Amino acid sequence: MSSYKKPLILVSNDDGIFSPGIQALAEVADEFGDVEIVAPDRQQSAVGHAITVSTPLRSRSFMIDGRFSGQAVSGTPADSVKLAHNQLLNRKPDLVVSGINHGSNAGINILYSGTVSAATEGTILGYPSIAVSCTAFNEDADLSGSKDAARKVIGYVLNHGMPRGVTLNLNVPEGPLKGIKWARQANSRYVEEFEGRIDPHNRSYYWLTGKFQLLDQDDGNDINALEAGFASLTPIQYDLTSYPLLKELENIEL
Known about the structure:
Elements: E1 8-12, H1 20-29, E2 34-40, E3 59-64, E4 68-73, H2 77-88, E5 95-102, H3 109-112, H4 114-124, E6 129-134, H5 144-160, E7 166-172, E8 180-182, E9 188-198, E10 204-214, H6 222-227, E11 231-237, H7 243-249
Parallel strand pairs: 1-2, 1-5, 2-4, 5-6, 6-7, 8-11
Antiparallel strand pairs: 3-4, 7-11, 9-10
């Protein structure tokens, strides 16, 4: 049994160690235990579960808001959690929380999100893990509802635990919390376009643009919950096996 009285909560994100969201999440985590922040040293949105293999990782120590010790890592969100687990923490965390991200990570965004991947990496390493996102992109967004929702979910997980291999993905509208609904991931996609341009040296380049498309007409998904003003809470897993199809195909010889 651990000799420490308080649980250790590792806080990470993909917006970078100095984002308003990570400070807000650290403030909530501080209500439950000791807090350590290990996060990318710069913006790393939409990097998914990328890890750094071709260059060395570096970390620098900081104090965040004069209250929390932090390590800024020269890599991705998944790198940050891996390095925290393996090298940077004096003891293993009891919980990993990632966020508060600026922008929704519901629907297909789960697949691309560095915020979710930091939490998923915590799950892979064996820790209960939560990803937290606010649907508003602006850095001065009202995170009061996101903090309240995170407080409820952190309390639940510390009291009840989580099944191994499962991460909780929490998305919250800006402003006061209306309530939290358990929801499944919505079937959605991006309809993308690449806008071609020419630089001053007459070389072509492209900017990615596109629109989010909801393909899901059934109730109970995370996008519907958010559009109704509720926070959505989705248990997700990194096992990508299609078990129904595997069962159907397992007796077929190729």
